DNA sequence: ATCGCAAATGTAATCGGTTTCATTATGACT
DNA sequence: AGTCATAATGAAACCGATTACATTTGCGAT
């Protein structure tokens, strides 16, 4: 005696409709090749039985999983989750589902060991990597599905990438400060090993070099509120305060502002601050933050589209998405600059 | 001629080791029942071929997917993504992977239609629902895997739940304000249909009733920074300003504070603000926010554990996690209260 | 040596679909 | 009516593992 609550199988539908299982399968996957009469009969039978395909069986036969894996450094970080939202949207439109793995949640002993098991064609049809700190060797085996790098990237891992224009963004930010007359600009960076930090540092260097200025002094942070806050102490301990700070992301900028304001500095009167990313919070910070807008959801969408495109035409494309400066209240003309301007006028 | 790059199958390993496929399978899944000699031979063959099991085949045979689906209302919201991080951690320890679906990204025409396809045993072994606004009927069919509700819940959907103690949290927040002498307390709520809003409103009502005070006036928000900011205008338009506001979450509180400060009000001197959730940003807000701490990662972990426990002992448990008040700088004694205290002394 | 039981291993069924290939039905054209 | 191409359908192979069941092996007890 069979469990009456058992899910109906394609065989049950076929029997009820008086056709073969092959026909039922065709009605479901390619209705155009089956006659009107039988199609209707099958659809009726599907309706009556409440049949839904068993995806495990279908996937096994079709040798595809119907899912894409996203590797994120920190799932709890809104920066990444917004990219994920973009990825998710594109995947759903294609009927694919999104698997998420937090790369920092691995066994601390061997961070990559647990990951390798997930980098397998039988787990996911593709991988979107949002963590630039991974070992490229992880992806270097036959069983690894197609990979797209997004946002961050991995040196030594060839393949398509979708990136924001970090260098231009940083350059625009610094040029904005230079235009306001700032000359003593400090760069609050992300971890120096991080690819984002590196390309943003390049933008900073380019802007300063173009203005004939020496490289900016740096404080290294960790992209976190906390590290931004901690940087305020380091900054205030310096002999000569900078007149402006460019921060590699908004979270650090907000942490930094909190620390500076607590120490009695006024923003932007005493010190100008620029961030990067334009997270939603930045508009509502203690002082609305001037920052570089990066369209994260779009970046996610593009990454997913790039991955899907790989199926038909594998090519190691590199897509660089434009960014733009958003000027709010955390930046103002340098006071030195004002003095100079006043002197010029009086002269 | 076979593709030399094709992934090795269990058959290849068996041939190389000179054993049957059954033995190879046993070495991989239950090594103890195979002799030392053959086990080593098989392990060597696995090593040489670089074999890894095909999960689609295994899953089909074992009738399980190896994945859990999380239904979140907004993937980009850090509040949820931190819960996801907790879920993810627990699942990984069990070798399960995490599928994520943003319930608001469905076809706007019929929000639940797209979802139903995902609520299927052949897609996921279990479901963790973080969205209380879904139709309970969605889950009411035989093919739906076991469900655990977390954080929010769905009226009319029986089954295990893991919740923060929203009512107590709200009550503690309001009692804190009452203790500071506030009597004119406004409640900035989430959407009135939201279960979280409702239970927090219950806590607010309980605290006020216990103090013999009438219900608090409300402004309805949407749990977003923007709606919190918008609420500031509505608040300032009122004839009599409240001396304190309890906000249903930190994001609204931060948005509200930004609006109030822009209008020239000082926090906490002119008005006290309490939030809920204790998101990381709250400590770095323009004024460090007094709020109710909710352990989101733990909530996620518990939800995952509850789901796993359902496998062996299905039971509609309800787990309520404690919350605690975190007092920072956004709350201070009511000025009325101070006046009253002064008068009392002088009398 | 023989028996019996347990341990080790092999054979083949099974999971539930999709898809190839063969077969039958349909219909157009001469 | 006969021929042939094409459309519609069915039978069975296949995807790649796990596992029930059968068989063989190993070993101690008699």
From TrEMBL, chains A, B:
CDD domains, alphabetized: HTH_LacI
Any one GO MF annotation of this record: DNA binding
Domain HTH lacI-type positions: 8-62
Matching Pfam families: LacI (PF00356), Peripla_BP_3 (PF13377)
Entry keywords, A to Z: DNA-binding, Transcription, Transcription regulation
Keyword Glycosyltransferase set for record: no
Alphabetized Gene3D superfamilies for the sequence: 3.40.50.2300, lambda repressor-like DNA-binding domains (1.10.260.40)
Protein name according to UniProt: LacI family DNA-binding transcriptional regulator
Species annotation: Salipiger mangrovisoli
């Amino acid at each position: 005696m069979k469990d009456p609550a058992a899910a109906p199988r394609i065989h049950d539908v076929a029997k009820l409709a008086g056709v073969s299982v092959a026909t039922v399968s065709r009605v479901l996957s390619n209705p155009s090749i089956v006659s009107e009469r039988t199609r209707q009969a099958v659809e009726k039978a599907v309706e009556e039985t409440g049949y839904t395909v068993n995806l495990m069986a279908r996937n096994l036969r079709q040798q595809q999983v119907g899912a894409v894996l996203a590797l994120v450094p920190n799932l709890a970080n809104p920066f990444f989750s917004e990219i994920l939202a973009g990825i998710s949207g594109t995947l759903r439109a294609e009927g694919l589902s999104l698997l998420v793995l937090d790369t920092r949640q691995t066994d601390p002993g061997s961070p990559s060991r647990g990951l390798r098991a997930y980098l397998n064609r039988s787990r996911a049809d593709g991988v979107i990597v949002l963590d630039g700190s991974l070992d490229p060797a992880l992806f270097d085996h036959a069983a690894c599905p197609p990979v797209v790098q997004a946002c961050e990237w991995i040196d030594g891992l060839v393949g398509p990438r979708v990136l924001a224009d970090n260098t231009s963004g940083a350059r625009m930010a610094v040029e904005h400060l230079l235009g306001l007359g700032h000359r003593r600009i400090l760069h609050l960076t992300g971890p120096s090993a991080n690819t984002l930090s590196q390309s943003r540092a390049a933008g900073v260097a380019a802007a300063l070099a173009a203005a004939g200025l020496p490289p900016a002094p740096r404080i290294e942070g960790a992209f976190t509120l906390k590290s931004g806050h901690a940087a305020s102490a380091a900054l205030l301990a310096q002999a000569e305060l900078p007149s402006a700070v460019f921060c590699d992301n908004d979270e650090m900028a907000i942490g930094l502002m909190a620390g500076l304001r607590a120490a009695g500095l006024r923003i932007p009167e005493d010190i100008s601050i620029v961030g990067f990313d334009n997270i939603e919070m930045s508009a509502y910070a203690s002082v609305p933050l001037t920052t570089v807008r990066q369209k994260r959801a779009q970046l996610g969408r593009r990454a997913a589209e790039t991955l899907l495109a790989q199926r038909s035409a594998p090519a190691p494309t590199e897509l660089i998405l434009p960014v733009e400066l958003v000027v709010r209240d955390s930046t103002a003309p340098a006071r030195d600059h004002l003095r100079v301007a006043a002197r010029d006028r009086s002269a």
